[in-house]
Design brief:
The structure is a single chain. Helices cover 29% and strands 21% of the residues. A hairpin with a 5-residue loop joins strand 3 and strand 4. It is globular and about 50 Å long. It starts with a helix and ends with a strand.
């Protein structure tokens, strides 16, 4: 696949992911396509960080496949899992609008 074909394919995949998110299911196709222009895909291997507490959050995240955990660590080093996020779910919306850094560690529990 050449670079142009790959870019069109990726844009189509991103449009599909966005269009299937509950918050955008009723959005017109043209608006979904515009959102997809600003979207980025990120493939994360199991055990790898999606983002860490304190990292900048350039937007919100949607999980297309796999599963990620949102967790905090106590001062004693204990982990508290706040939420598991799977396909079709999102996280980071409030943080994005508040323009705050990531408040939790987000780690892939499966290739995502």
């Amino acid at each position: 696949m050449d670079n142009q074909s790959e870019a069109r394919h990726n844009a189509g995949v991103l449009e599909g992911v966005i269009a299937n998110l509950p918050m955008f299911r009723q959005a017109p196709r043209q608006q979904v396509a515009e959102l997809a222009r600003y979207a980025r895909s990120q493939h994360v291997q199991r055990g790898s960080a999606v983002c860490r507490r304190g990292d900048p959050m350039p937007g919100f995240y949607a999980v297309a496949y796999g599963i990620v955990k949102l967790a905090l660590r106590t001062d004693a080093g204990e982990e508290k899992v706040l939420r598991l996020v799977g396909p079709g779910e999102t996280f980071g919306e409030a943080v994005m609008f508040l323009e705050k850094p990531c408040p939790v560690d987000v780690v892939a529990l499966a290739d995502s």
